[in-house]
Design a protein that fits this description.
mainly beta, 1 helix, five-stranded antiparallel sheet, about 190 residues, five-stranded mixed sheet
Length: about 190
């Protein structure tokens, strides 16, 4: 009942049914879950993802076209606000409800078949980012990220955002820089004096 839209039908609970994020390039980082930043939901905000219980796992796939490194950042999302009985006679019986710390999320990176674990991030407590930074991928192709939880702080869904950034290997980065510089020089030469 409380899963995100990607849990409908077959869902994205396995690598075979992973939600494709697209091709990560240096100029095109990928992200999902970008609308879960505040307590107000605008009519055009639809990019929400969540882990709804300890058995829920969300799989995402991304592709790289050349060997390089990736940065993966998993950020728990949700607003904080007061909940509980209202203040009366000078006492405050309200608690702070932190929707970004409902569950302790974890993130796993898998190879192109979706079964061989390459890296796991699960060190931080509930409400904190999990990160896999500068992980070297030697082959172009498709890779998988699994988001899950092992510790439930409260019996509520945990919204999150997942960011994927690609960093080309040094030779590719040098070639990319040279190409961009050459294009800028050509544009500058075409401008009228």
């Amino acid at each position: 009942l409380y899963g995100d839209a990607l849990d409908k039908g077959a869902g994205n609970d396995t690598a075979a049914t992973a939600t494709p994020l697209g091709t990560a390039t240096f100029a095109n980082p990928l992200a999902i879950g970008t609308d879960a930043d505040d307590a107000f939901v605008a009519f055009d905000e639809t990019d929400f993802v969540s882990i709804d219980d300890e058995t829920d796992e969300d799989y995402f796939s991304f592709t790289i076209q050349n060997a390089g490194k990736v940065n993966l950042v998993l950020t728990p999302k949700g607003p904080s606000y007061l909940e509980g009985p209202e203040q009366s006679a000078g006492t405050n019986n309200q608690d702070i409800f932190d929707a970004s710390a409902l569950n302790d999320l974890s993130m796993s990176l898998f190879d192109s078949n979706g079964t061989s674990l390459l890296e796991l991030a699960s060190d931080t407590p509930a409400g904190e980012q999990e990160r896999i930074l500068g992980f070297e991928l030697d082959e172009p192709g498709e890779y998988f990220v699994r988001v899950g939880t092992s510790v439930r702080v409260r019996e509520r869904p945990q919204m999150y955002r997942l960011d994927v950034a690609y960093i080309p290997e040094p030779a590719t980065a040098t070639l990319l820089t040279a190409t961009l510089l050459a294009a800028a020089i050509r544009r500058a030469r075409r401008r009228p004096a």
